[in-house]
Amino acid sequence: MPAHISRRTFLMQGTMATAALATSAWPSGSQLKIGYAAITWGDSIPQAIQDITSAGYKGIQLRSNAVAQFGNRQAELLSMLEQQHLPLVMFSSGNANINTGDDEAVIKMHTDNARFVYSLKGSDMQVTNSSRPKQGNPTKEDLQKFGKLLNEIGKRTADLGVTTNYHNHMAQLGETPGEVATILDSCDNRNVRLLLDIAHYQQGGGNPVEAISQYRERIKNIHLKDVRPLQGEDAKRYQFVELGQGTVDLPGVFKALNNINFKGWGIVELDAVPAKDKTPLQCANTSKAYLESIGVKI
Question: Which of 14, 26, 220, 221 is deepest in the core (most CB within 10 A)?
Answer without folding.
Answer: 221
